[in-house]
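User: Hi! I'm working on a homework problem where we have to compare a predicted structure to a textbook description. Could you give me the structure for the chain below?
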Amino acid sequence: MGFSASDVTLGTTGITVPKNGFGALPIQRIDQDQAAALLKKAYLHGIRFFDTARFYTDSEAKIGYALHDVRSEIFLASKTMTMYADEFWKQLHKSLSDLQTDYLDLYQFHNPAVCPKPDDGSGLYEAMLEAKAKGLIRHIGITNHRLPVALEAVESGLYETLQFPFSYLASPKEIELVNLCREKNMGFIAMKALAGGLLTNSAAAYAFLAQYDHVLPIWGIQRESELDEFLSYINHPPVLDTKLTKVINKDRQELGSEFCRGCGYCMPCPVGIEIPTAARMSLMIRRAPTSVYLSDEWKIKMRKIEVCIHCNRCAEHCPYSLNTPELLSKNWEDYQQFL
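Assistant: Happy to help. Predicted structure tokens:
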């Protein structure tokens, strides 16, 4: 397959693909046949990079079911959240089995609280090296939501790729991180380019990321209409013109930087609060059809905030150091104005 100007190469890996990756977290929410239809359409229309994780329930199995017959034509990336070397091997072999492949193009540590390194006592990085030596994985990467851990991973020289949230709401320090990856010739995979659903103009999101020719966006796709949008950008990429710049500036002004990204690391909640949505309801209800969030079902879900036991688990697990209980309380107070 020839390469075009819209392709991106992930650092030293040699992985060169169109500047559209398929983020497979959302396909765990749809059935196998629906997921297979999306994945096959993505492949047939040029998407070649598919990112999943052991943590994404049956996402790997759905990819294996849909794309095993074109394995040599695609790049598969998965992740492990384990903190133990023995569990590393169990998860890797399970991923390989579900994906119906004998190797992964990229295997990533999934949002670790600290950056795994050789001789750190965990044996995790050594396991990665052994898996690579055995041909079970081809490249070693890391994903994170914590800027200090991400910076440490980049500076360490131990990883070939970094996956990190990156959208036009990024802070100056996050943009510095992206540029540092370019300097270090480290592949950068951009997750949450739509800020967990808060950004609704995919053309603006795409045009912003297109400024960074070393960045590969992976779009979380659950519906065919979403897929069609991103497929259309392969041959007709949006340009960051005056119109889209106005969209970006307006969103930056409205959303700022202190908002829940919806990453879900605060879950589960011991009293059943759906934190990732509830903690940003004020924004969602103003940026999406209100009928979705003013349903009887969502009224019941939001009312659960009243029984918060303030265990602070959500705040302790927030990669962005948000005061989540306070955020939930403010969102519940605001939500009641719409009832």
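For your comparison, note the following. The CA atoms of residues 4 and 99 lie 28 Å apart. The two ends are 55 Å apart (CA to CA). Good luck with the assignment!
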